[in-house]
């Protein structure tokens, strides 16, 4: 009875061991799948703890392709049966070609970034011949996402909390000679130091510049006058501009402007004029963006 019990226990143990090992063998090799419509162009997700099955057949070459900037290091290739295979290394990866009828063996490729354990096997119904094998790299995608986050944080820091590069809008002009304004904390670079002389019926309801453009706000129903910029020789030139709702945006900052409508004339003097413009903290002329230095840690290292 005891002997029978022992035999049953051994059989059960063998069955249990076989059951336990089956999933391990099933997971031992990763079989790449087709990247698209062509079954010979195959892709796999790179895992440093995973070996990959490469389906081969006599008369067909195989290309193992790495990501840009990745290459096999010196003496970084090792093959189990070197006599049955021809291996050529290039800047994009490794080119393999079997030279024997049954060339099944293993291949190890060591690059400047990763190690690739490959099993070179015969084609089967489960995997057509591999012509090109490419990898998807979760570590590269994670670095790219981290770099993008750092760039976004750098842009936010460069903008200093500004909501875009929109200029501050001072309060209305209340008297001839000076411009009175509300706080302009949203854009400290706004210049409102303008003086006027002439027909104040032509005066804008607000006037300021941001170091690039000059803004003439006309929150009235009056016809818009023509704005001229004073030239160094004393002459006048029609200012280039575009409209933003009720504001004439002149495409320059000038020491003096002249506003005309019919026979009426109003002179504008910019007492905050700076020929070099105001300091542009964001380093960009595009609203809501900033120019930042390239982070050398973003680039992949060899």
Q: Could you walk me through the main structural features you see in this protein, from its secondary elements to its overall organization?
A:
The protein has about 300 residues and is of the alpha+beta class. It has two helices and 20 strands. Strands 2-3-11-5-8-7 form a six-stranded mixed beta sheet, with no helix packed on it. It has a five-stranded mixed beta sheet with strand order 1-4-10-9-6, with no helix packed on it. The chain has a five-stranded antiparallel beta sheet with strand order 12-20-19-15-16, with no helix packed on it. The longest helix is centred in the first third of the chain and has 25 residues.
Spatial order of strands in the largest sheet: 2-3-11-5-8-7
> Which structural class is indicated by helix and strand composition?
alpha+beta
Query: How many E strands?
Result: 20
Q: Proportion of β residues?
A: 25-35%
Rg result: 37 Å
Shape: rod-shaped
Q: In terms of quaternary structure, what is this?
A: single chain
Question: What is this structure's SSE topology?
Answer:
Layout: H1 2-26, E1 29-30, E2 33-34, E3 41-45, E4 51-56, E5 62-65, E6 72-79, E7 85-90, E8 93-98, E9 105-111, E10 115-122, E11 132-136, H2 138-159, E12 194-198, E13 206-209, E14 214-217, E15 226-230, E16 236-238, E17 241-244, E18 247-250, E19 256-261, E20 264-270
Parallel strand pairs: 1-4, 3-11, 4-10, 5-11
Antiparallel strand pairs: 2-3, 5-8, 6-9, 7-8, 9-10, 12-20, 13-14, 14-18, 15-16, 15-19, 17-18, 19-20
